[in-house]
Amino acid sequence: MVQRSEYDQWVQDWIEKEKAGGRKCFDVKKTGNSYYVYYQTTRYNSMSKKREKVSGYLGKLVEGVGLVEPDTYSDDFEKVSVARYGLGIDTGGSFTDAVIIDLDDNTVVAKRKSPTTHDDLSIGLYNSVDAVFSSCDIKPQDISLVGISTTLATNSVLEGHGGEVGLILIGWDPKEEVYFGEKNQAKVRGGCDSAGRVVRPLSKEEVTKAIMEVSKGVDAITISGLFAVANSAQEKKVKDLAIKLTGLPTVAGHELSAALGIDLRAETAVLNGKLIPIVTKFFDDVERTFREKGISAPIMVYKGDGSVMNLADAKMYPIQTILSGPAASSMGGRVLSGHENCIMVDIGGTSTDIAVMEGGFPQIQFEGASIGKWRTRVKAVDMCTVALGGDSKITVEGNSFILGPDRVIPLCTFVQDRPGLKERIIHSEIYEYYETLPIGDKSILTEKERRIYDTIEGQGALNKMEIVNMVEGLWLIEEELKSMVRKEVLAIASLTPTDVMVYLKKFQLGDPTGSEAGITALAARTGMSKKQAALAVFDEIKAQIAEVVMTKMLDDELRNWDDHGSRVLLRRMITTKRDGFMAMEPKFSVPIIGIGAPSKYMMEDLDERLNAVVEFPEHNDVGNAVGAVSSKLAESLSATITPTPDYRFLANIPFAGAAYYAHLDTAVAATRRWLESYLEKNLEAAGARNIVKTSKVKTYMAKEGGVGDWEDESTARTVNFVEVISRAVGDPPEVQ
Fold first, then answer.
1. At what angle do helices 233-246 and 204-214 cross, to 10 degrees?
2. Which residues 6+ apart lie within 8 Å of 587 measured at CB?
3. Can you tell me the distance from the alpha carbon of 227 to that of 194, in angstroms, rounded to the nearest whole number?
4. Nearest CA to 492 among 462, 452, 522?
């Protein structure tokens, strides 16, 4: 695919001139060294009651002349097809984005943002949807597919919210009591061995008693059986009986993960059960509202592994939506940039996420995602996340600028409607301020927090010293202030990268004099001029983004590389000043794609720092929402093949158990067939269309870098194991 950025400059200039003149319904395509222009528009067909897409050839572009139209024209040249539009939605930390895209070529038709409403995410979502439809002539009934990326599951886990769960353990009786966050727990006899053979049959009477015990006062039931990944029959029987007896949502561990470890599968299942009531309510509200708006299209929910699933599965397996936001940005960046292989860097208000795209999909961490204190066995995008974004707090320690990890309100927006605050910031040389928020139940506060809140309630914006002076008898309040911010009873504003970029006139937001006041205070505390302070901290911001990208790549390629000396070397490599007798610099063989509104500024010299091609595709500010509706249904699994002492090859296939083969090529071929067939059936059951299956075989050697043929005796002795990774990808269902 030829990228627009690869077109001759005169062609790019012509396109920009046409766009500036309001002519947007065309596309320019390159064939060989020639450029051809096509028009594209839509119209409503009253007979079919559907919007149609009309496209045709306009003419050839000639340098110095412009568009040379064809000698003849006929309506026969027009190509008419049913217009297919998708609605993508992403609920981020700051904003909820909504985009409408043309599903035939993934071009953005309209986009809008609304503030994310954390108390009820559906409000911000509805506001964005209303705004995006109001901004164009596309109607709700024209939508063929809806895609949603949401932070609800991730935030619920981190904040400790969730329903009550009952857990049944099959065939596992540990010596010590185990607890995974469930309300009720019961153990029943049964289980299998590692080869999938039943160790002990189930007793229906015992299982029935366990189901009735764990179902008391819970929202969901979860089941985890010993070696159920090798034989899931017992888990399925218990699940079917639990649904029949209680009617409660019931999920078995093998449905969520094919990894070994009954304890980790149990923990994953319990966490999934706790999320079911929260996520189900949200998606029920979403579905009801969309249907009321006239949107009859299938609603797909983004998963943490870069694929999508239908709404029914999202309600039953909500844990799979953990990290869906970062995963959606990866796919959105691929769609907007057109690059199948690249490094995606998504910079938002809170964090920077980095993922490697390979063959059009982000690389996956099969061992599972960890969120807060929870360990899961749910596949997720192999992503590096750091707490550095546009709204990260900037502090000074010695001669160093510290960025994050706390997220705060930028001064440029905070000073609005607060007369005199800018002058106070400059006079006090303090740029961190707090303000009380309405609170319904003060019982969530400790005794010291209650004293602070009651004293400063309604007093407006105050810095820490002003609060200390107002609250009698308290001098050390740092921890209390942090706790009250976490409990959302205090708002905190401070200097941020956003303020730095506003001061440097990179873009406009809020009141720029608020940003200037913060920079003035920073300059006074560091002994610099305002411009020096702003440029110094901005350089540190860009340097840290470069370091994060390099860290991700080094972590993928090397082990145990990270120490003090390596960090010094790394900082030397990403500097923009390479002089002296030895210049050290990295070199990237794939492009780096910037996603998110702040990315083009915070990554503006990343190409020079990393010796890489860096691109910021059009509409990159809503890349997550684009990814939410332009991804595909996908399933992936991995299996391992290891040599045995009797010179055979043991294939451990997650859902089928162990199998022995006499030859490696036979083992690999059989494993591929097992995996690809299993994945294809799963996608067909989910309504996927145009399914494509692929597999990748990795050979791990005892000697790093060693390669060879299994038929060669000396090579065979150096092979540890072979991993087969299979993926099936299909188009999601659409309304016809």
1. 60
2. 611, 612
3. 6
4. 462
Is there a domain that residue 286 lies in? yes
User: Which residue carries 């059989």 as its tokens?
Assistant: 670
Residues 262 and 333 grouped into a single domain: no
H/E stretch holding 464: helix 464-470
pLDDT in tens, 159-211: 677 899 999 999 988 888 899 889 999 999 998 887 678 889 999 999 999 99
Of 719 and 539, the one with more pLDDT: 539
Q: Considering only CA atoms, which of 84, 149, 88 is closest in space to residue 626?
A: 88
Kindly report the average pLDDT of the chain as a whole number: 84
How confident is the model at residue 704, as a pLDDT?
A: 40
**Are 177 and 141 within one domain?**
no
Of residues 318 and 40, more confidently modeled: 318
Domain of residue 68 covers 4-82
Amino acid at 311: L
pLDDT at 369: 64
Contact 163, 276 (CB under 8 A): yes
Question: Cα(362)–Cα(344) distance, rounded to whole angstroms?
Answer: 9
Written as six digits, the tokens of 398 are 């010695």
The residue count for the chain = 736
Q: Indicate if 172 and 286 belong to the same structural domain.
A: no
Query: Is the domain of 105 the same as that of 41?
Result: no
**Residues in CB range of 370: below 8 A, 6 or more apart:** 376
Q: Do 427 and 322 belong to one domain?
A: no
Residue at 615 is within a domain:
no
Q: Is the per-residue pLDDT at 46 higher than 70?
A: no
In degrees to the nearest 10, what's the CA dihedral of 681, 685, 690, 695? -30
- pLDDT of amino acid 717: 53
Please tell me whether residues 36 and 184 are part of one structural domain.
no
441 vs 345, residue with greater confidence: 345
Between 621 and 375, the more confident residue is 621
Boundary residue ending a domain (273, 290, 306): 273
Residues 405 and 531 in one domain: yes
Indicate whether 442 and 504 sit together in one domain: yes
Is residue 579 domain-resident? no
Which helix (H) or strand (E) segment is 725 a member of?
strand 719-731
The total of other beta-carbon atoms located within 10 Å of residue 733's CB is 17
